[in-house]
Amino acid sequence: MATLTIRLPEADYDALKIAAGDEALEAWARRTLLAAAAAPVVRARYGYRATGPGKATILRHGDGPNDIGGGAADLSQEQMSAYQRAKALIQRNAPGDQAAAVALLQSMFEIVVETAV
After folding, report:
1. What are phi and psi of 21, to 5 degrees?
2. C-alpha 116: how far from its chain's center?
3. What pLDDT does residue 100 have?
4. 97 contacts 90 by C-beta, under 8 angstroms
5. DSSP string, 7-49
6. Residue 36: what pLDDT?
7. Distance from CA of residue 23 to its chain's centroid?
8. Domain boundaries in the chain?
9. How far apart are CA 104 and CA 33, in angstroms?
10. Distances 79 to 31, 56, 115 between C-alpha atoms, Å
11. According to a count of CB atoms within 10 Å of the terminal CB, is the N or C end of the chain lower?
């Protein structure tokens, strides 16, 4: 079995012992680290461009309420509805929302690519 050694100040060590409570510190640290590693990664900055027919862009610049940008042109009603739903998913940004937004865009547009933000 592999060994992990972490050096930290005495005050931080004491805080970890308090957080572990009655559980052994090593078992608590192992459980906490594995839970953190298993959690899904949710990015804060990303964007998508969708084309054909029409075009749309959704850009997520951060976690603030006004950090969503983009635009759309020449879309049908169905495409506009999908664009708005995808934009809402990207704004919420919960685990799985990014993949759901891409699937939604791919169902309405011929080409969907991730773009730099």
Report:
1. 65, -130
2. 15
3. 97
4. yes
5. ---HHHHHHHHHHHTTS-HHHHHHHHHHHHHHSPP--SSEEEE
6. 87
7. 32
8. 7-39, 46-115
9. 34
10. 45, 9, 19
11. N
Read off the pTM. 0.71
Q: Do residues 55 and 34 touch, judged by C-beta distance below 8 A?
A: no
Question: Among residues of the chain, what percentage have pLDDT more than 70?
Answer: 100
Q: Which two tokens stand for residue 107?
A: 């169902």
Question: Checking phi first, is residue 114 left (phi over 0); if not, alpha (psi -120 to 50) or beta?
Answer: beta
Quickly count: other Cβ atoms within 10 Å of residue 45's Cβ: 12
Which of 115, 113, 67 has its CA nearest to residue 90? Answer: 67
H or E element in which residue 112 lies? strand 111-115
Question: Could you tell me the end-to-end alpha-carbon distance of the chain, in angstroms, rounded to an integer?
Answer: 41
Looking at residue 1, its pLDDT comes to: 85
* Pair type for strands 46-51 and 111-115: antiparallel
Closest CA to 61 of 3, 5, 117, 110: 117
Q: Which helix (H) or strand (E) holds 82?
A: helix 77-92
